[in-house]
Amino acid sequence: MKTFPLTTCAVFAGALAVGACAPRDAPEAEAGGDAMAEQAPMTFFITSAGPGDGANLGGLKGADAHCETLASAVGAGGMGWMAYLSTIDEVGGASVNARDRIGMGPWHNQAGALIANDVDELHSEAANLTKESILTEVGDIVNGRGDDPNMHDILTGSNMDGTAYTAEDYDNCGNWMSNAEDGSAAVGHHDRIGGGQNPTSWNSAHASRGCSQENLQGTGGNGFFYCFAAGT
Q1: What angle do CA 187, 93, 230 make, to 5 degrees?
Q2: Alpha carbons 112 and 103: distance in angstroms, whole number
Q3: What is the pTM of this model?
Q4: What is the CATH number of domain 44-229?
């Protein structure tokens, strides 16, 4: 029986063998053209867990440390993590504004999606802030209104422009040092729905009823807050 070299392509009676001898080492065609750009690093997240003591976060220092701990656990530590929290002074004036603590931007979530390019955009309708884009440091979506349990009240102590919230008898939960049954802290709705003066605001929907963990959970929260990489 006659044999043919592997490199020979022949047409036999009624049967096409075209392409049967394609080189085995031919490079595969690139799918999708150029390689995808490297994913932007995470520079923004919502905490997957609070310290567990209501609005007592250990002050700004303790809240910042909590952000750093969570970020470090997923390999994103050392980026100047700051909690998006405001404080007030003893007479109710602004002491620290959350917008002034978080760096210049831009900020990306755990999936690499752009949240905002800068502070002004972050506090505008152009910001990409939804229940689906506001991810935890491990990439999870946090429960919102309609989920069980609802955890959409996010601690901020801020107005919608990122400045410190102030009101008569408002104590900002002792500037994040109180877990008392009384007191109050401004919260936002990460899912952009609900009740309050500004129900669709991510950072200033209404004030909490009390500062304890039970108070926060009872009105749709769990002591979570936002963290931003401000840079080293």
Answers
A1: 60
A2: 18
A3: 0.84
A4: 3.10.100.10
